[in-house]
């Protein structure tokens, strides 16, 4: 027998065995990481351990044997949508999948001492606020290194991030993650406004493509197109998110006269019954400092009067948000309901004012 050859073969076998073990470990870790990453997207992972304790105040939804390592037990929990925590017996290699997580204030009542068992669950950590830009959209959320919860409004974003600039942000609205444009400028009433309409008429012919029937959209997800100059979220869709805002802001500007309307309605009754109600046919006279207020950018003629009118009694329309939302008869209107009435602090019909339709109209919620 060639002892040198035998030793060499033995060393090769040992080397091969170690390499194989290392590869399998890496593959297993990679798969485990993928599973953990997948579960993290669902806002759940395990980051908390109690050694020598077993959770008893939970239902066992699965028992697995012959799991040699605790990470294998945790991976099994990650792949089960009902699993919230695990008990792992390091002596007999048994894994219990549990349907409840632990309440730290109840540890003494919900767990029992058992040296052979360890408990693994989720411990909520203090949340920081983080913003990351992805594809031109800012994703700002409460993060703890494990869970990332998006803000629910531009107003909430402004409160959490006072220095954030105006732009597109992803928020959690109406049970969906939606990209919206947030006006964050302090001089605009403190910022935190979500834009729901933006209409730009570039010339006289363009008005036939930009009045409300041409630009109205029912899809919240289409808010990502709001800055293109031909978009208005429909009043029925605005009503579906009524519980997310308390103010409606209307803004417009026409280069021909150089004036800007920038007004905010904050009266609940006016917002509900006049601006958004689908059957209302009423006209209201809100008074300044009680039902609406002007922002610093407003230099309109309408803004110089203590009381104006919102809504219209002359015709039945689906809502008044885009039709006579803000006006004073024969003096000035804010109106994009029809191509011949693209008004902004003017009232060209029956007056000596020139007919100029070019301008920009914007609507916001907060």
From TrEMBL:
**By its UniProt entry, which InterPro entries does this protein fall under?**
Fibrinogen-like_C, Fibrinogen_a/b/g_C_1, Pan_app
The protein's UniProt keywords, in alphabetical order, are: Calcium, Disulfide bond, Lectin, Metal-binding
| Apple domain span | 52-113
Top-level lineage group = Eukaryota
Pfam families associated with the record: PAN_1
Q: Which GO terms describe its molecular function?
A: metal ion binding; oligosaccharide binding
- What cellular component terms from Gene Ontology apply here? extracellular space
Name of the protein in its database record: Apple domain-containing protein
